[in-house]
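Q: I have 201 residues here and want to know how they pack in 3D. Can you give me a structure?
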Amino acid sequence: LFVEPSKASREDIGSGVVQDLPFVIQLGRQIKEAGFKFMLDFHYSDSWADPGKQTTPSSWRNANAYALNDTLYNYTKRCLVALKNQGAEPDFIQIGNEISYGMLWNTGKVNPSSDQNWNVFSQFLQNASKACREVCPKAKIIIHIERSGQPDVSYNYFKRIKDHNVDYDIIGLSYYPFWHNDLSVLANTLNRLKQSFPDKR
């Protein structure tokens, strides 16, 4: 789900950035009516968000960290209420896409191996999670990164998430073998995270 994909660059629109709230409601309803589980991925951007690009939505860019927390909470809640009211309540909610280096740059930018700015970023996650719990209490919340080829970095990231008391249920990892090393490295990452955070799926 993108915030305002119509405001994305022409290049991004050409690469399939069309998933606004009405689009996702319709697709989510189809998924639920077919009897499948529905995972919603909030990008919190007008286009693709990934480790190299977490662009703040154009209509949010003049807000400071305090205002962004309020905006993030209200946007998440509004979208989830709309989905729920239209028969498209998600079963899993991913609050941010590949947020290894934070979200809503530059305000919420972090480094997994540094303490700097984690108080700001973690508040964003806490507000997103709060909205999810209020509207969709049965849904499982996912924190999603893509450092699966770096066991130490992945551990440091989720240790900081824990230290800042971010509420979530599932550790989500992207794995691209051409960037993230072979399966033995992935296995090392998965095993370390499982042992270090046994309460998370």
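Q: Anything worth noting?
A: The radius of gyration is 16 Å. The chain has a mean pLDDT of 95.
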